[in-house]
Amino acid sequence: SSSPCSGIQGDDNLQSMIVGTVMRKIKSRTWKKQRYFKLQEDCMTIWYKSKKAGNAHSTFSVNDVETVREGHQSEVLLSIADEFPPDRCFTLVFRGRRGNLDLVADSADEAQSWIKGMKKLIENLENMGESEKLDQWICEWFKKADKNNDGRMNFPEIRVLLKMMNVDMNEHHAHRLFMTADKSQTGTLEDDEFVLFYKMLTQREDVLRVFQDYSGDGQKLSLRDLEEFLRDEQLEEVDGVQQLAMELIQRYEPSDTAKMLKAMSIDGFLMYLASAEGSIFHPRQQSLYQDMTQPLNHYFISSSHNTYLMEDQLRGHSSVEGYIRALKRGCRCVEVDCWDGPNGEPIVYHGHTFTSKILFKDVVIALRNYAFKVSEYPVILSTENHCGVEQQRVMAQHLNTILGDKLLKSTLDGKIPVSFPSPEELKGKILLKGKKIGGLEESLNGPVEPEDSLTGEVSDEDEFIQFNSRSFPQKSKQRLSKELSDCVVYCKSVHFSSFKHSRIHSKFYEISSFTESKARKHLREAGAEFVHHNARQLTRVYPSGLRTDSSNFNPQEMWNTGTQIVALNFQTAGVEMDLNDGLFSQNGRCGYVLKPDFMRMSERSFDPEVPINREGYRPLSLCIQVISGQQLPKVNIKESSVVDPFVRVEIHGVPLDQAKQETRYIDNNGFNPVWYDTLRFTIHAPELALVRFVVEDYDKASRNDFVGQYSLPFSCIQQGYRHIHLLSKDGTSIPPASLFVHVRITNLV
């Protein structure tokens, strides 16, 4: 296992980072300022300040950096490309929704030192085991609280630290622990003594209780004890349980003596419960486990709305970063709004608003570079086209020259198909969704009559019409260029008349888009028909044009109808994106999730409003005991405040399953609150349900503050004693914050 400083001695790059470098921080063509950057001795923190004496410094953790891009690989650096050569430029990309840091070094060598050094540090962190991560986290706290930097902590400093860590502990108890840890009896704790203090502080009574229930002698779990625990509590498969017990001891038991005895100590037991295997999400379902050879419309597809916007819909900043971020989160359907731009180049922005504009060409380049970084499965480029025929030709040209054979130009076998190809067959392909002259049949059988190009509107969203119908004339019939039309194969945008009309007349490759309100109307009036329609065709649902703040609707409602492309504002954090991340966190995060079989069969009927009527209906009971929380992050920055946490468990699914229940709140303890509260739910359509755990800070006077959350598909839950590793508002991890729960799922009938 490694530490953040692994291999630092012989590494010239890291050595020169520790010495420090002056680089330019770039925010725009006009904002370019010199800053002094250096790596701290912990190999974990980058420190920087302006060269003027007396100015405050800033820091960020290497943990927060997702990746390093070399050269002119961000909009800001591209905008100054004429000033600074690419070999001096690089970009640090942060996790979550934090902006990039664009830097220019004085020489190519200095840039390389930082690029290689940062990559090495990120790699070191990725290779760290759980226990090193914990020790490292403890040391970070130690440094924060060691106010006079002498590498020791006296009792007053420890008291301040406990507050910072969200612990409100009585003085007497804290002092007793302090005395015990102060082995050298100097009245201060050095770092290894502090680690001991921290471990005593975090002793897990709740885990000890379970351990002693199963331990024959109260000291260790013998192989047989552990097997019994895995079989009876964790409900692991009976025939593999002995093998599993052996593996867990090998993997998680720190004591060699225990290993020789084929036994597990409390430390090993805790390590196992805190690992991926002890987490609530079944590791097998985190990897790619579904059949990827079904027709494309049999999958839910992770989809983004107005992908180019980074914030709201009226004045927001448009950016190619929007596409990069969405694609990196596993999104497989992105959207462009295209308008005629200057110099014959089509531009992308939110029409009739003050959002900034970017080039269509740059979006296509980003697609080429990032479409298949996290998933090999196809990406759908959904176009809202407001361009005239001339610039439509330019769009077609860009798609063809930039994407090359990544762009799907014809049906897979050149024959006229009767249903969609599968994600497996479309790997590595980008599919254009837009208007098309005529159908697939004609384009395969020969040329299309040119007068056809006069019919059909080019764009099918009615967003800005609802927005302010007085100020814009209704869209005129606009001509479609044959070149752009030819780029559309399996996703021809059409207007929707009715489910009956589609059933009789529509081709499988015709796709309609609904605003959320239209979709709700259909699902209330004809739920089962909606599900049937989606068993044969694709449907896209997008947020109402009235959501100018880029807020989202609840995607669950739309997934309940089998709608594949539920487009959300990826840039807006909240429960809706939590659910989207939850659904798509399974199946290797590839952006495709197979729909339940009763939504794929044309001969089966399923109405989300009445799940009881479906063939094969088997309701389940879900019982969750919320036992405890660990190291919940502080919400309030005020030194004195400590969290009063409670947990809410929410079920999102068919209307009958929508439910939420809460534990009581614990006064003043975010560090190791203990609840032992049991919450019970009945689930009528388990295949569609998602479970969301939310921790909030109770406040009787005002709104509760959000502390952390975790969402996952009901079908991916592991039963028994499990940890839930909480995520921030942005969906990024906040180690080591967790919940400890016990889960049981039983048949109701």
Automatic annotation (TrEMBL):
UniProt GO cellular component terms: endoplasmic reticulum; nucleus; plasma membrane
Domain (EF-hand): residue spans on this chain: 133-168, 169-204
Membrane topology designation: Peripheral membrane protein
Keywords: Calcium, Cytoplasm, Endoplasmic reticulum, Hydrolase, Lipid degradation, Lipid metabolism, Membrane, Metal-binding, Nucleus, Repeat, Transducer
Domain PI-PLC Y-box positions: 484-600
SMART domains: C2 (SM00239), EFh (SM00054), PH (SM00233), PLCXc (SM00148), PLCYc (SM00149)
GO annotation, biological process: intracellular signal transduction; lipid catabolic process
Record-listed E.C. numbers: 3.1.4.11
Main location class: cytoplasm
Domain PH, residue spans: 15-123
Pfam families: C2, EF-hand_like, PH, PI-PLC-X, PI-PLC-Y
Localization terms from the record: Cytoplasm; Endoplasmic reticulum; Membrane; Nucleus
GO molecular function, one term: calcium ion binding
Catalytic activity: a 1,2-diacyl-sn-glycero-3-phospho-(1D-myo-inositol-4,5-bisphosphate) + H2O = 1D-myo-inositol 1,4,5-trisphosphate + a 1,2-diacyl-sn-glycerol + H(+); a 1,2-diacyl-sn-glycero-3-phospho-(1D-myo-inositol) + H2O = 1D-myo-inositol 1-phosphate + a 1,2-diacyl-sn-glycerol + H(+)
PANTHER family hit by this protein: 1-PHOSPHATIDYLINOSITOL 4,5-BISPHOSPHATE PHOSPHODIESTERASE DELTA-4, PHOSPHOINOSITIDE-SPECIFIC PHOSPHOLIPASE C FAMILY PROTEIN
UniProt-recorded name of the protein: Phosphoinositide phospholipase C
Source organism per UniProt: Oncorhynchus kisutch (Coho salmon)
Lineage: Eukaryota, Metazoa, Chordata, Craniata, Vertebrata
